C-alpha cells in the first residue's frame, strides 16, 4: 500500500503528502487509519508530514478558529486558552485494561480511590468505548500523526501512530516528539507501533455551535490496552491526556513494556553535572508532577565553576548497558511541556531563554503588548488579561497554576551534547523527592539498593495542580509513578529490586531530596533553584565514597546525611539544624502511614524486601 492509496479512503479527501511523492506505508498502519476513520467518521483526513509549512498552516487554522492567538512580542509564539474544565490530567478517569485484573491491581487491594492504577475489564472498556467513539469526529478533520519516542531509528525508540481530531494536539506533538515523514520512511510491515486514538469528543453537527476549546469533561476517559499496544483517549484536549506519546505511551505502556523487556520507564529528569575539576556525571531524578523536575534539569548553578546540562526534564527510559555495566538513560521526548508559574529569569533563566520563540503557551495570562504573564514571572505589567480571557482583577490567579509552555528541546541553551545519543547516558545517581513541608530533611542517602528502592516506594508529596486533586494533602506517590505505572505496583517494586540482584553491573547510588521544607512561618527553609547545586555537589562527592561515615557524611535512622562542615554553605544563610532535624514522632507516624498504605494497597504483592526495609527503619527510628 502506498500513500496515495490513502487519498481514496472512503472517498474522503485526504490531504496528500507533499514530498517525497510516494512513501510506502505499511498495511497495518493504513488499516488502523482506515478503522479509526470508519468508526469516528471525520469529514477529512490529514496525514501529518511534520513540515514547517504544515505547522504554520495548522497554527493559522487555530488562529482563525480563535483556538490560538499570536503573541507578537515574541517570535513564532502562540497562546491557547482551554475550557476551564479541561486544565489538568484526570487521574480518576485514567484506566488500564488487561484481561487479568491482577496484572494491574495488587492483591489485598482496599479500594482507595486514585491510589493505584484504575483497572477496567476488556468487556467494560469495549462498552465504554462504544458509548464514545462512534461518529465522535463528525464535522472535524482527523490528523494522523506518525511519531517516534526517542531518536528516529534508534533501537531504544518506540513508534506511535496517533489519530486525533485536535489541531492543538497535532502542533504540540510536533514539538514534543519526532513526528512526520521521517518516521513513516523507516517503517516496514514488521515494525511494531502503538495505536493511539484521541478525540476531544465534540462532533460538529448541523446547527451546533462550535466551542473555542472543544472537550467533553463529563465523558472523559483515558484508556490503555497494554496487551495490544493501544491507547484510546476521549474528551480532553489537555496535554497530559491528549499528547499520547508522553504519559500514555512513554510511561504507562512504557513501564509495562519495560517490565517485560527488563528495562525501566520512569517519571524522571536526566541531567549532566560537571564539577570545577572537569569531572562529569549524569543524574536522574523522579519528583511528582509540578515538584521541580524541569527546574532541576535546566538549573543555572549558584556555585562558581559548576555546569549543568540537560538531557530531559520529565521521562527517562533506562537499561543496563552490557558494555559499560552502567544504567544508561535516554529521554524519549523532543521538547518541554513545562509548568509556567514560578518560571523567571531568577529561578530558571534557561527556560526563559527557551520559551520566547517557537512556543505554544496554554492557560497563561497575556499582556497588552502581545506578551505573556504568570505568577512568579517578575514585575506585574499593566493591562493583564487572565487565563479565562478576562481583564485580570489582580487578586485571582492570572495564569492557571498548571498553565504550561510547550517548547522544542533545541531551544534550550544547555542541552547536553549527548542528549540524542541512541546509547543513552550512564547514570551515577538517582534522586527521589517531593514536596514535604514538614519533617523531611534536605537530602539523605540510601544505605544500599534495597533501601533505595524502599525510599522510592515510600515517596509522598503534597498534591499539586497538575492533576484534579483538591487542596494540599500529602499523597503517597511511589517513585512519582502513581498516576503513570502501567502494571501491578507490587510487581513494579519487585522489578526495581531485581536490578539489585544483577551481576556485573554498577548500580547508581540512591538519594532523597526535599527543597520544600518550611519553617514555622510557612517560609521555605531552603533557597532552592540554583542553590540546589549545593546538594548535587554533596551527592557528587558521595559518588566517590563507599562508607556511610566520612568527613562529609554520617548515619541517621533514615539514611546517610551530610555533616555541616562537609556541605558547601558559602554565601548562603540557612537554618541548618532545622533543615536536617529528625523528629522521632514525625518519623514514627511517617513509617506507620507508609505501612498502612502498603497494607491497604499492595497487600500480598508487597515484596518481602520492602517490608523488611520498613521494619529496619522502624527499629532505627525507635532509637532516635
Ligand atoms: P515539574 O513539573 O516536576 O517539572 O516541576 P517544575 O520544575 O516545573 O516546577 C514546578 C513548580 O515548582 C514551579 O512553580 C517552580 O517554580 C517550583 N520549583 C521548582 N524548583 C523549586 C525549588 O527548588 N524551590 C522552590 N521553592 N520551588 C521550586
Ligand atoms: P510535569 O509533567 O511532571 O512536568 O508536571 C506533566 C505531568 O506530569 O502532568
Ligand atoms: Mn510529568
Ligand atoms: Mn516539568
Q: Brief overview, please?
A:
Residues 263-619 form the Phosphoenolpyruvate carboxykinase C-terminal P-loop domain. The chain has 624 residues and is an alpha/beta fold.
Q: Oligomeric form of this entry? A: single chain
Query: In the CATH hierarchy, what is the architecture of the largest domain at level 2?
Result: Alpha-Beta Complex
Termini gap: 70 Å
Biggest sheet overview:
10 strands, mixed
Decide which structural class fits the backbone: alpha/beta
Task: Give a structural overview.
- It is a single chain.
- The model is unreliable at 1-13 and 17-21 (pLDDT under 50).
- It is built from 16 helices and 31 strands.
- With 624 residues, it is an alpha/beta fold.
- It has 3 domains: 8-67 and 89-261, Phosphoenolpyruvate Carboxykinase, domain 1, CATH 3.40.449; 265-333 and 416-622, Phosphoenolpyruvate Carboxykinase, domain 3; 336-411, Phosphoenolpyruvate Carboxykinase, domain 2, CATH 2.170.8.
- Helix content is 25%, strand content 22%.
- Helix 3 runs antiparallel to helix 5 and helix 15 runs antiparallel to helix 16.
- Strands 1, 2, 5, 6, 7, 8, 9, 10, 11 and 12 form a 10-stranded mixed β-sheet that branches. Strands 13, 14, 15, 16, 17, 18, 25, 26 and 29 form a 9-stranded mixed β-sheet that branches.
- The radius of gyration is 24 Å and the shape is globular.
- Guanosine-5'-diphosphate (GDP) is lined by residues 287, 289-295, 313, 338-339, 341-342, 347, 515, 524, 528-529, 532.
- InterPro entries: PEP_carboxykin_GTP_CS (IPR018091), PEP_carboxykinase_C (IPR013035), PEP_carboxykinase_GTP (IPR008209), PEP_carboxykinase_GTP_C (IPR035077), PEP_carboxykinase_GTP_N (IPR035078), PEP_carboxykinase_N (IPR008210).
- Keywords: Decarboxylase, GTP-binding, Kinase, Lyase, Manganese, Metal-binding, Nucleotide-binding, Pyruvate, Transferase.
